[in-house]
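If you are new to this repository, start here. Below is one unmodified record pulled from the training split, so you can see the exact layout before writing a loader.
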Amino acid sequence: MAARYVSSQLIQTVQKGAKTVAVEFVDKTTSWTRPAGFPSTSVQSEFAQVVKDNIDALQPTTTTVAMKESEHQSDKDKRMHYTGFELDKNRNVTRTSHFVQQK
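And here is the target side for that same chain:
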């Protein structure tokens, strides 16, 4: 069974046009707790920018994006991407998404 979201910590709030989203990193799932000091501040900043660049692809109900995995490739998605949870205003996970840096 896949790890389910439990909690996350705020990185910053980003806005593009009329859409405002809180950007966070997951600090705990049902399977793991992220070690203190991770992700680095540079990874946090980069993820916030990637979310801002991809804000138009978020569901209309998304109020928070929480980074689950830092930039990586996977068997199902060979692009370098971040994996994040999209959360609604009640902090329910509505979708798991891949966020790719816009070049």
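Two things worth knowing about this chain: The chain has one domain: 5-99. Helices lie at 41-53.
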